[in-house]
Amino acid sequence: MAGGGVVVQGGAKNYEGGVTSFVLVTCLVAAMGGLLFGYDLGISGGVTSMDQFLKDFFPKVYRKQLNKGHESAYCKFDSQLLTLFTSSLYLAALVASFFASVVTRMYGRKMSMTVGGISFLIGAIINGAAVNIAMLIIGRLMLGVGVGFANQVVPVYLSEMAPAKVRGALNIGFQMAITIGILIANLVNYGTAKISGGWGWRVSLALAAVPAILMTVGSFFLPDTPNSILERGHVDEAKKMLQKIRGTPNVDEEFQDLYDASEAAKQVHHPWTNILRGRYRPQLTMCTLIPFFQQFTGINVIMFYAPVLFKTIGFGAEASLMSAVITGVVNVVATLVSVFSVDKFGRRILFLEGGVQMFICQVYKSDGCWLIKAHPK
């Protein structure tokens, strides 16, 4: 780049400045929000497969496990109370995400991360110390609030802090943290299941406090993003922050683009009405259907219930937890591939590759199930 301006490559601007250590540290702390979600995804399924946990809180399910009759293995986990325990977090996260968007916009990204971290920390403490179902549900609700805030704010924070040329890789840092959290949780469950006395599930649930503490404490030291500062009308402060995170005083071009975008956003008085107009329908459709179908694949359910699923198809308790660990390792490796390829090959290529791969695996799995049913021997 010559003359301190910007160059255009493939239609995208490359501004002056690079990935500073300041950006890496702030993004690392922010990505702890992904670790919260990933840890909970991985830990809960493993805990609900532990005999002592079921005996303490869901004795009916535990007695079904001991029953060697002809009842389906899946039906042995059929419990409305157990379903309430697992689903309460996601219901709370759904509701909290709406409040999180307001807090993020009015008070900044930093405030939302602090609220999410504190809420998750409280939930982890309550769950680790739980002595009845009520404490478990309350703890799950607090965890859900933390997840709702973290999932809403962290991707936005990472995108706004990252330089344009590596924005894809740093933004995937959130997904990377989720997969690492799942793997760590599976490893923790595998270890705590061996603790004599049957209190290992408490360790598994309480250790969720570790990423919560990292995110909460780190959020007090995190700066707010230039975009967020601009939204609240502090122009000079926003420019100084942009200079700090880019490691150069020559940020006039990028700052002007941010300022123009902020001013344009303020001119939109009825955003929900505008986005429903016909000319925005393609964007609205894709922004809605892509995340919907990504979740509709059921991958979160599979990761959540992995130990239980392996257990119901005949794996032993230890083998089911180890199988979940193996699944977690594959998940981390696949995410690493995306981190190093997204800015090189683009998002579209990853969408196509992932979609084709999932389609082939689903067809292969369905065909395999049909063969097993047709020829059980």
Provide the CATH topology of the domain at 13-224 and 300-345. Answer: Growth Hormone, Chain: A
Mean pLDDT: 80
Question: Count the helices. How many?
Answer: 18
Tell me, what is the CATH class of the domain at 13-224 and 300-345?
Answer: Mainly Alpha
Annotated CATH homologous superfamily of the domain at 13-224 and 300-345: MFS general substrate transporter like domains
What is the N-to-C succession of helices and strands?
Answer: EEHHHHHHHHHHHHHHHHHH
Biggest β-sheet: count, sense, barrel? 2 strands, antiparallel
Category from helices, strands and their pairing = mainly alpha
- Shape, principal axes of CA atoms: globular
Tell me the number of strands. Answer: 2
Return residue spans where pLDDT drops below 50 for at least 5 consecutive residues.
Answer: 1-11, 368-377
Distance between the termini: 67 Å
The neighbouring-strand order within the major sheet is 1-2
Q: Give the oligomeric state of the chains in this entry, treating copies of one chain as homo and distinct chains as hetero.
A: single chain
Measured by DSSP, the beta-strand proportion falls in: under 5%
Just name the CATH architecture of the domain at 13-224 and 300-345: Up-down Bundle
Rg for CA atoms = 23 Å
